[in-house]
Amino acid sequence: MSATTNANLFAILSRAWREPAKTFARLADGRAYTFQDMFDMSARFAGRLRRLGVEPGDRVAVQVEKSVQAIALYFGALRCGAVFLPLNTAYTEAEVGYFIGDAEPRVFVCDPRREAELRPLAEAAGAHLVTMDADAAGVASSGTLLDGLAEQSVAFDDVARTGDDLAAILYTSGTTGRSKGAMLTHTNLASNARSLAEIWRFTADDVLIHALPLFHVHGLFIATNVVASVGASMVFLPAFKLDEVFRAMPQATALMGVPTFYTRLLDDQRLTREATSHMRLFVSGSAPLLAETHRAFSERTGHAILERYGMTETGMNTSNPYDGDRVPGAVGFPLPDVDIRICDPDTGRALATEEIGMIEVKGPNVFKGYWRMPEKTASEFRPDGYFITGDLGKIDARGYVHIVGRGKDLVISGGYNVYPKEVESEIDAIPGVTESAVIGVPHKDFGEGVTAVVVARADAGLDEAQIIARLKGRLASYKLPKRVVFVDQFPRNTMGKIQKNVLRDTFQGLYL
Ligand code: MLC
Ligand code: AMP
Description:
By secondary structure, the chain is α/β, with parallel strands linked by helices. The chain has 14 helices and 27 strands. The longest helix is centred in the N-terminal third of the chain and has 17 residues, at 35-51.
């Protein structure tokens, strides 16, 4: 394969890095990394991974604090043809154990503080364990992966990949059973980056405030890839902190965030027209943005937040327009290369305008399938290749897609997905618990608050704190119920199934 036909995502992104001395990432403390630095660091990581035995197609699992080097490591994994597998830093040993066991990475990069705990898992999966940690500003500061890295050559021959080769696997929980690894190809990621940069009008002059985590689609493939694909810059923040975001805005042009970012900004008096006058774009996604938040933000700043809709398996599917109405409560039009239809969830029959049904998606953004789960993959696609998203919606007369509910039992808290079944299984295993139902109810800060409703034996003497204490260490912290309420019995339908909608109504005021 010649260099010009290389569909490796890194080759595609780095074509836009025409000014090596330009800043790619600036940190809050003033330190900066140029595109040349990103070339050099990613080459060194690629060389290092290769020396650790990584061959094209091998998985490289990474569970580390956010840093510019973590982005370079992602680029380095792409350059050596590996499949990048980022893991949420909140995942517990039990959760990581499942992912590593399932994906069988060649290399697992973890936080040095967790090395002792995670080493047996890495060894059981046959992975080399190396470590990397970051300082508070977002610079990798220690760890065995950095040992001798500076002496490593900056020359690296990028591995050629076809568009259909895997670039990444991202685990996504399921409504039932085990988490599934969504296999994303170089074309999936490249097509999405290209489309979004174009419709959101990103150019090399843009400066994005990057305050999202790097282990999910939004922060890694949308924010990072869009910036990299046009040679733009970012203000790199290790986490979403209001002071730093306000400090960054006068030098920045765009922000991408989950709705919690916007409700927190609105709660702050510093959010004004003047504070946002240098910004040209605010993007929201990963969870529903309340129409009320959209309107309040417009009134305070004069900026209409641009809401888009996506998921791990597909990257972005729809976006409100850059020009034209950004409709509060709607997620906009299909991306130029994406087809969307609304179907009857049971029969798959296509529905008409304004009719509510299952949102189905087809396009170069749609993943290749679930890692080592061919049957599960087949069951989530229609015979004509459309992916069944599990989201319920409609398309209105103007062509805007609206999400009106979820066909899947899912809670989205601050942009993180929590599958009730997973939490319920852990609660049900606690001695004294008869049964539990986990629901999402409106939460001022997180959009939805994970809430456990529990029936327990009277003689067990269980209380809220005990239940939460038992779940800590088993489940990532964002999955922990914000509240546990005890009831004598559950409302049930005639089939005996717990009526979660009744529970949601009963507890809807819990966090407001
Ligand atoms: C943190 N905590 C949460 C939480 N985030 N609890 C519920 N839901 C969340 N989202 C808990 C922590 O466990 C901790 O608990 C306490 O809150 C404080 O932690 P923190 O780290 O200080 O939280 P904070 O910085 O306030 O984080 C909130 C947040 C963050 C909203 C900024 O969660 C965030 O960045 N979310 C973005 C998620 C994201 O990137 N989603 C995209 C997925 S991709 P304790 O008990 O330890 O104090 C996708 C596809 C698409 O969905 O369309 O984009
Ligand atoms: P994830 O599995 O983390 O990729 O989450 C994807 C899910 O987040 C989608 O299937 C939707 O349910 C939800 N989602 C993403 N963006 C939006 C949005 N703008 N509005 C409503 N829900 C959204």
